[in-house]
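We emphasize that the prediction below concerns an isolated chain of 376 residues; any contacts that depend on oligomerization or on bound cofactors are therefore not represented. The input was used exactly as deposited, without trimming of termini.
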Amino acid sequence: MKSYAVIGLGFGDEGKGMFTDLLCSRLYRPLVVRFSGGQQAGHTVYRDEKISHVFSSFGSGSFRGVPAYWSKYCTIDPVGMVNEHHVLETTGITPELHIDPRCPVTTPFEIRHNRKTELENKHGSCGVGVGATWERELNHYSLTYSDLFYPSILKIRMDQINRYYGETIPLDDFYQAVSIITSFKNIMPDNESFLKNYSSIIFEGSQGLLLDQNFGFFPHVTRSNTGTRNILEMGYKPYAFLITRAYQTRHGTGPMTNEHIRHTIKTNPLEKNEQSSMQGEFRKTVLDLDLLTYAIQKDDYIRATPRKALVITCLDLLENYQYTKKGRLHKCPDMLTFVTEIQEHLGIEEAFGTVSPVPDMNQSVSQRVKDVARKS
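Result of the prediction step, given as a token string:
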């Protein structure tokens, strides 16, 4: 069995979903595994130029019929899952999802609490209850996926959660969603031994390394290990694909360098989340190699392993190929020089770029991914 990790180097939105989809098209008998985060991930994948989907509760290989596994490190939202399942069915897809029975379940209480807290503190949350779910779990008011299959247990748990928050809110949609997902034949509980049934394991990251709870910039972080820590605890040492856009991006509040530098980054007509009621306007600016270096150095496995490749996405959106290093602006004459200088600075042997989120439009990139995967 071979394993691969798709890890974002920034604050998210690097192109992890697109690249996971591409790997699914190149590997033998793959399984996508989510090892961090939860329903706050928004991974855009294009089946063709007309049909796309933002994956949150299902794996980014679903368009290709590749099943997914939600590890115990991920939260699930029954209401969001049912809604997303319906949307996928309208595109002709019935996604296969296997869920660790220990996955914490997000309820409407956490979503309300999360949004209320974000409006007061502005940490950069997208407001879907992931952080609040983990906080409740740590305080021993637990609700996990396995509990959903026992109505009496579910009722006791929800009564306790109600008392935990000290408020009463409508739960009809939640209970209906629980009834639906526990009856689906394509969504089912499985433990980690299920992974042994597949030849290729693709660990699909959630947010980027700069949002990791241990080495991001608190409090503007996610309550999750976005690096390789959870993967290693599961017993895997993957080949790591480290992904960054050709420029910095960030949703929500929090530190971001180079915003003072004037840039000419094009607007991506395929961008799915330019404006959010919770996080505000999508921020973008010139790439900072110090941040990328920092992210790599903070993850012990990524720093030490030679089994890694750099992927730079959205190169076609740059008019000027430039980046900063040690606070100084560097300008490159062309795309190849830009990619090469970044690769050399980060000390990564394999590197390549993509220019479109539509699968297989850049055949040379697809072939190189296949070659790298074969060698790893």
